[in-house]
Write a structure and sequence with these properties.
Length: 475
């Protein structure tokens, strides 16, 4: 093999756990992880396909780490056998940068979820709920200049940032920031963004400035909805559109062409998979979402039990396609007593359990993600024992489906609509069960992020790739 390179499927991440720095290699194909000490990381950080083992030893020495050549050779061989180091690839493998939007798509109007403005609760939940935060190269350079003291990143970029994947930052990709006890390294102790404090809103990366907005081009307009992944999203929905809240659409963006090129706009595919062998056209799916009972303004889940309704809709979609929704179950509906529910719940419990065991190696006990995974397991156990979840949260659940429906996010390209609807139903029941477990524990909230259980469920499932459980449940 020629000079080794960290594989493009490998994500190297910096963590600080209880004051101890570590680097972990995540194999995104197998979900396996390998923890490196400072000497191992000095070798791997230099493995960009331009150095043989002797070159890696010299680079490590340059970085202040002495590694004997024989030991380095064994180390490289072990990582190669594990599939983490690979033969250097051609530079041409760099991903193409998406072209600027043009033609009719550029003139599509941008439309925000009505009656919603976001008020941040200042608890930094969104800065502590995800595996990392991505920065473009320019954003990373700006962050290091604004807050050079953070992990000494001003002097050493590699101490606070690693390439999103592999050993090099490819075109269209960026850097992953280090996580300190589960929080973005730039989150200050008072839970304010240190970059915003130092440089105003423009100091933050674009993803943080836009969060939690989602952008979907449905072929007619660009819908801007909100991902219900942060407690302040649900809290904002409960208080109604506040004058001091932030709009979802960037200032001045009237048409798609007005959005910054780096804004990720999802294109709704021309066909949507409904179930086994059945499809629907994009226009029909859009019309169906807009005709759901919660799509109208001011809808309240008074007479409808939302997760039970999603479960019934899934069956209707499988049997009749995208017809008008029939009768939907009212409040007080029981948990489903069928194999699909048991199968989905078990698959999710398995995924959460494996992730919790894996993450315990790099996450401190008070890390929000670790806490959240533990409580999710308790809630899943409650559902498995058939214990009643907490009373329904009519306002929160109504907003949840309204936001997802407007954003055409009730499904995605990875799963058929029927399965996606059951998944969303399970998440809502899980949120109720989590609320019941918290109430029954007799202790105060473990973290402010638990104030809105469905938001925590959403952040953990999507943010940590746990939503892949759906594929396991359907196979
Ligand atoms: S950059 Fe600021 S807003 Fe973004 S995750 Fe880090 S602390 Fe939070």
């Amino acid at each position: 093999m020629g000079p080794p390179e960290l594989g493009a499927h490998v994500a190297a991440r910096h963590y600080v756990r209880d004051g101890r720095r570590l680097v972990v290699l995540h194999d995104t194909r197998s979900e396996g992880i390998v923890e490196l000490d400072a000497r191992g990381w000095a070798l791997v950080a230099a493995a960009d396909g331009t150095r043989d083992v002797a070159g890696l030893v010299r680079a490590a020495e340059h970085a202040g780490q002495r590694v004997p050549a024989a030991e380095a050779g064994r180390f490289v061989a072990a990582l190669t056998a594990a599939g983490l180091l690979v033969a250097a690839s051609e530079p041409a493998r760099a991903a193409a940068v998406a072209p600027a939007v043009s033609g009719a798509a550029a003139d599509r109007p941008v439309e925000a979820l009505p009656d919603f403005r976001l008020v941040c609760d200042g608890q930094g939940s969104c800065c502590r709920s995800y595996p990392t935060t991505l920065f473009s190269p320019v954003e990373a350079a700006r962050a290091r200049a604004l807050a050079p003291e953070v992990l000494d990143g001003g002097a050493d970029a590699a101490a606070v940032f690693t390439p999103e994947r592999g050993a090099r930052v490819l075109a269209g990709h960026g850097y992953a920031v280090a996580m300190v006890d589960g929080a973005c390294a730039y989150l200050a102790p008072d839970r304010r963004c240190g970059l915003e404090v130092a440089g105003g809103p423009a100091g933050k990366p674009l993803g943080c400035r836009l969060f939690p907005a989602s952008f979907v081009d449905d072929g007619v307009r660009v819908r801007v909805s909100v991902a219900p992944e942060c407690a302040c999203v649900l809290a904002s929905a409960r208080r109604g559109p506040a004058a001091d809240g932030m709009g979802l659409v960037p200032a001045g963006a009237r048409l798609r062409r007005d959005l910054e090129a780096a804004v990720a706009v999802t294109e709704l595919p021309a066909t949507v998979v409904l179930g086994a062998g059945t499809h629907a056209a994009r226009d029909d799916f859009r019309a169906w979402c807009d005709a759901l009972p919660w799509a109208g303004p001011g809808w309240r889940a008074v007479d409808v039990d939302v997760p039970a309704a999603l479960w019934v809709l899934a069956r209707q979609v499988e049997t009749h396609g995208l017809g008008p929704p029939g009768a939907l179950p009212g409040g007080g509906a029981a948990l489903p007593d069928d194999a699909s529910f048991a199968q989905l719940r078990a698959a999710l419990a398995d995924a959460v359990g494996r992730r919790q065991a894996r993450d315990a190696r790099m996450r401190a006990a008070h890390d929000l993600v670790r806490l959240g995974l533990g409580w999710l397991l308790r809630a899943l156990g409650r559902l498995g024992r058939g214990l009643e979840p907490a009373p329904r949260d009519a306002v929160g659940e109504a907003f949840y489906v309204r936001a997802l429906g407007f954003g055409l996010a009730l499904t995605d390209e990875h799963v058929p609509l029927a399965l996606a609807l059951r998944d969303r139903a399970l998440r809502l029941w899980l949120a109720r069960a989590l609320a019941a477990e918290l109430a029954g524990s007799g202790v105060a909230l473990p973290d402010p992020a638990f104030a809105e259980p469905i938001a925590l469920v959403e952040a953990l499932l999507r943010g940590h790739g746990l939503d892949a459980y759906r594929a396991a449940a359907s196979s």
